[in-house]
Design goal:
Layout lengths: L4 H12 L3 H15 L9 H21 L4 E5 L1 H13 L16 E12 L5 E15 L8 E12 L6 H8 L6 H11 L2 E9 L9 E2 L3 H9 L7 E2 L2 H11 L4 E5 L4 H9 L6 E6 L19 E3 L2 E7 L7 E2 L7 E7 L2 E3 L10 H4 L4
Helix pairs in contact: 2-3, 4-8
Length: about 350
């Protein structure tokens, strides 16, 4: 997918979100799987509230999508995002100040792998984020506060994950007529879930235990409940890397017809391209001359650094009163021939132990 094409796909999603059938299906999915792990057990007023929350989740996506700035992340950079997500500390906090834009839609070429509660290997191809006013359950103030909603999608047409392939052609495949209807209504957009992220929220561990309600559901289906990937780490790693020197950020060249189409759709005619910055790979003194067939990443890691109080990510230093620190990514760098593919070991690529 070329970066300018992202505008066409964003416009496509906007049109599809006007379809009542699609909105109803995604609302139901949020209600059952993401709005509240015990939603299916609720009765009366609580069930109505859970369904309303699911409706707000999908309606908010429809409202924030037009103004969302578009980001295209190439395969090398997507691999680095997945790698960085494994290296973050559990105590790291999500900071809204590190977000490149208040709302956005990002396409990760090749997808970011994660595992769901059933042990299925899934891919996040797209993430949309945007503001939402909600009650922060961490603080019982009774007042709504602005949080960030994430909506995640697998691209069923370009990189279907295990769940999509099973629905298309596996043992649990949908009837052909039903799958064709899904294709007509949803197109490439395989909705994998929604999640609310709060400012100053701790990232937590890379793996999360399955909710009690999901344990019973998976076991009833004959499966074994699994710990599932903490996808908050993915968007946090992307936001963090957007401001680091390892990242090359530039504007895509949008042709005139596509700019006009974007204007008619009332969306910003811009796409930010996020790439892994190449460094010199000259042979060091004493290094053997080897014809490498791929590139690799010299390990990077997140770290705290002293900074001034005006730094956008500054926070008071817990051990040095009056001083400030910020969380930065100590830049890894790719090594090897620039024309070769980037390979990252599965040991650090997968979002698990």
């Amino acid at each position: 997918m070329n970066p300018p094409e992202l505008l066409d796909h964003k416009a496509d999603l906007m049109v599809r979100l006007e379809n009542p059938a699609l909105k109803a299906a995604w609302r139901h999915q949020v209600f059952l799987d993401f709005a509240d792990p015990d939603a299916a057990r609720l009765d009366g007023l609580d069930q109505t509230r859970a369904r309303n929350n699911a409706a707000v989740t999908i309606e908010t996506l429809r409202k924030v999508l037009p103004e969302a700035e578009a980001f295209h992340v190439n395969r090398d950079m997507a691999s680095l995002v997945a790698f960085a997500a494994t290296q973050l500390d559990e105590t790291d906090r999500v900071r809204k100040l590190m977000m490149p834009t208040r709302s956005g839609i990002v396409r990760f070429e090749g997808g970011i792998p994660f595992q769901d509660v059933r042990g299925k290997q899934m891919l996040i191809s797209w993430i949309v984020w945007g503001p939402v006013y909600t009650e922060d359950r961490r603080h019982d103030t009774g007042e709504p506060s602005e949080a960030v909603l994430l909506w995640m999608f697998n691209d069923h047409r370009e990189e279907p994950d295990q769940v999509a392939r099973e629905q298309m052609e596996g043992d649990t495949a949908l009837p052909r007529e039903q799958w064709e209807m899904v294709e007509r209504v949803a197109g490439r957009w395989g909705f994998t879930g929604a999640q609310t992220v709060y400012d100053e929220q701790r990232l937590g561990p890379a793996w999360q235990p399955p909710p009690e309600a999901k344990v019973a559901e998976v076991m009833a289906e004959g499966g074994i409940p699994q710990e599932y990937s903490n996808v908050t780490r993915i968007i946090h790693a992307f936001w963090l890397l957007c401001g680091q020197t390892v990242t090359d950020v530039s504007q895509a060249d949008i042709d005139r017809p596509r700019r006009k189409r974007a204007g008619r759709a009332n969306i910003p005619p811009r796409v930010v391209v996020v790439r892994l910055r190449n460094r010199s790979t000259a042979r060091a003194e004493g290094e053997s001359l080897v014809e490498w067939h791929h590139r690799w990443v010299v390990r990077g890691h997140p770290a705290w650094r002293l900074c001034g109080p005006d730094h956008p990510l500054a926070e008071p230093h817990p051990e040095r009163p009056g001083e400030y620190r910020c969380r930065v990514w100590i830049a890894p760098y790719p090594k090897g021939p620039k024309d070769k593919p980037l390979v990252i070991s599965e040991k650090v690529y997968a979002l698990h132990r």
